[in-house]
Every structure is written in structure tokens, then in C-alpha cells.
Amino acid sequence: MNNFPILKRQVYGNKLIYLDNAATTQKPEIVLQAMDNYYRDYNANVHRGIHLLAEEATVAYEKVREQVAKFINAESEEIIFTKSTTESLNLLAYSLTQNLKKNDEIILTVMEHHSNLVPWQQLAKQRGLVIKYVPIKTNGELKLDTFNKLLTKKTKIVSLTHLSNVLGTINPIKEIAKKVHSFGATLVVDAAQSVPFMQIDVKELNCDYLAFSGHKMYGPTGVGVLYGKKTLLEKLPPFLYGGDMIEKVTLKETTFNTVPYKFEAGTPNIAEVIGLGAAIKFLQEENINTIKSHEEELTKYALKELNKINSLTVYGPQKRGPLISFTIKNVHPHDITALLDKDGIASRAGHLCAMPLLQELNVDGVIRVSFGVYNTKEEIDFFIKSLNKAIKVCNGN
Ligand code: C6P
Whole-angstrom Cα distance, residue 330 to residue 260? Predict the structure, then answer.
């Protein structure tokens, strides 16, 4: 794919094969240009000035809100710009727990990324809340029968990932939403890995909140999204305080702006939001369903090839998102990724910010390859060759 300038570069004299898309994706020309144009042509703060540049910047920024809303089938007022998935989830952990009582319960799963676990854990400690975790089956899917038993009238919040960044498991959000709502609880979805891969329709999923990051969907770092149902956002207390999120301030008290502005304190990451708009345009032009089929095919092919290697264990279910985590018997994951790197292949190794899940899997670290719109079968063939070579080196052959 030649609209990603970085893919032309060499790594140790080899063509770059970028298989670390779950960590962050590369950026197409259209995203780079959109951000460059903003700084070159109409750099100004948003929502404040009444000069032409400020007006142009505000229009561009707000247009992206509409784009994001359409992209996930929400309303514009339901889209809050944050820094990242992590910030969106911190916002929710803080604001949603403000009105909870001691011993109220939050349900998470053992497959959560630290950013959907640590914030809840910290707030639970501060407010005397109880966290319960949904376990997984040996194939990496959630034990939904246990989840049904954990759900009670004490459950106030259920927060889980849509697509696990380690196992690739795609959780059945629509089905979970029905159960969660039947107990009057709130459903939060971490969609960091699913938004770049599959069509997301928040109305169909019927989640209450959904969080994702721009940089995993071919957009820039430094911009994230928090979707929330408007009626719920209106009641939710703000997380950050300062300029732009206020209606009126006196020396004694402050009233807050309407949603979504109530949640966007201070100067936002304007260039990054504009870059996110270009990334959505890119995804729409490529067609998210075509991207999904392409990545599914690559994943299926890579799984088939990886399963031919005797000393290798793959984690997660057969039907999965576009990523594969695995270990090699008696070989440290970092040694493999370091050797792959020498062949120009970017992969990731370690705990992948999901330590509790790795403890469940009984491993200290895994090697992960994750696919994007620009990857090809030829790249996977090269990766498998390089991996076999690396295993031989690690085994002293
Ligand atoms: N996972 C990975 O290599 P941020 O860093 O805020 O953009 O995204 C956090 C996050 C939240 N949830 C899930 C499911 C994720 O995968 C991530 C980011 C990267 O797996 C970086 S650790």
C-alpha cells in the first residue's frame, strides 16, 4: 500500500514488515497532510476566538465530532474527545463511581488491558466498592455462565473489552448489554481494538459508554474518544475542570457547560482531532468491511502456518480479531522479537499491559503479531520463515 510513507523505509537493510498494529497503526498520507494543513493554514484555538482562523479551526474540529458520531452511529453531542482510550476509561472510572455506595459492585473480566482495570481498582479502593472478575475458558472466551451468576442487584457497572489485545477474543457485547441492563447496571465497552477492525454501531450494541483511541485506527496519537448516551452524559459529573467546560464562574461557584463540552476542559488536541477525521475518511474509503475480511484472511493464514511449528502455543479462540499471541517452548519472547526485528519485522513481546490475564495463562510474556490494512500474505510467509530461523538460533541450532 503506497499511501503510508513509513512503509517505504528499511529496517537493518530489510523492507519494514509492520506486525505491531495492535500497539499502534501507521499513518496514511491523508492523516499527515490534514494535521500539517491545520498548523500551516489555520492554526488557532477552538471555541474561543471570533477571528477567521479561530472560526476555521472550530469548524474543522466540530466537523470531526460529526464524522466520529456517524462512524459509530451516535449523535454528535454523544462524542467526547479525550487523549486516549486510557483517559476515556479514567474519566468513566472517576465520574461513574462518584455516586456509588460502599459495597456496590463493579464487574470486569480477567482479560482486561490495565487501562480498563487499574482505574476501577483504584476508585474501588477509595470508595469501598467491590470488583468481581469474569473468568475465561481454556479457549480464551469469557465464561458467560459465571458472568450471569456474578450479576446481581448490587452490580452497578460492568466494564469489558470488545476485542482482547492478547487473545483476540471478540466478546458478545449485544448479548451482555441485555443482561447488564436487566439489572439496571451501566455497561462500559473498551473498543480500542475493535473500532479499527469492525463496523461499530453503538445503538445496535446498546452499550452505555464506549472508549477508543485514534492511533490504533490509522489516526494520530494524543486523541481518544468517549461515546456516552446523551441522557447519561447529562447526569455524569465532569472529570477535568477548567476552561471551556464551564457555563458561568463566580468566585464562589461554577456551573458547567452542556454535553459534550462539560467533559472537554482546556485546549484540546486540535491537530490530532483533525487527523482523526482524516483517518475516519481513510477507513471509510477503504471500507471497514473490506478491511475486516482482509485482516481475517491474514489471521486465518498466519494461524495455520504458526500451528505447523511444534514448539509453539497459540493463545485465544479460533474465531478472533486480527492478532495472534503465542509462546515458544523454552524461549524468551523478547529473544524472538529481537531476532525478528533484525529481519525488519516489527512485533511485540511481553505482558502486553494485561498482567492478570498472563497470570491466568500461566506465562510471563507472549509474542504478538497483529495485522493491519497494509499487510500481505507474502509478509506473513516472510515472518514465518524468519520465526523458524529465530527459533533455531534460540535453541542453539
Ligand atoms: N493496547 C497494545 O499493544 P491507549 O494506550 O490509551 O491508546 O489504549 C489503551 C488500551 C486499552 N484497551 C485495549 C484493549 C488496548 O489494547 C489498549 C492499548 C496496546 O496492546 C498498547 S499497551
Answer: 51
Mean pLDDT of 162-186: 98
Q: Give the pLDDT score at 397.
A: 81
30-285 belongs to which CATH class?
alpha beta
Give the residue whose CA is nearest to atom 17 of ligand 1: 192
Alpha helices (H) in the chain, listed in sequence order: 29-41, 52-71, 85-96, 118-127, 144-150, 173-182, 202-205, 230-235, 270-286, 288-306, 333-342, 355-361, 377-394
pTM, two decimals, is: 0.98
Q: Confidence band (pLDDT; 50, 70, 90) for 70?
A: very high
Give, to the nearest 10 degrees, the angle between helix 52-71 and helix 270-286.
Answer: 40
Buried b (16+ CB within 10 A) or exposed e, 99-123: ebeeebbbbbbbbbbbbbbbbbeeb
* Ligand 1 atom with least separation from CA of 112: 14
The third-level CATH classification (topology) of the domain covering 288-394 is: Aspartate Aminotransferase, domain 1 (3.90.1150)
Phi, psi for residue 251 in degrees, rounded to 5: -70, -15
pLDDT of residue 2 exceeding 90, the answer is no
Q: Would you kindly state where each structural domain of the chain is located, as residue ranges?
A: 30-285, 288-394
For the CA of 162, the nearest atom of ligand 1: 14
Q: CA–CA separation, 335 vs 242, rounded Å?
A: 47
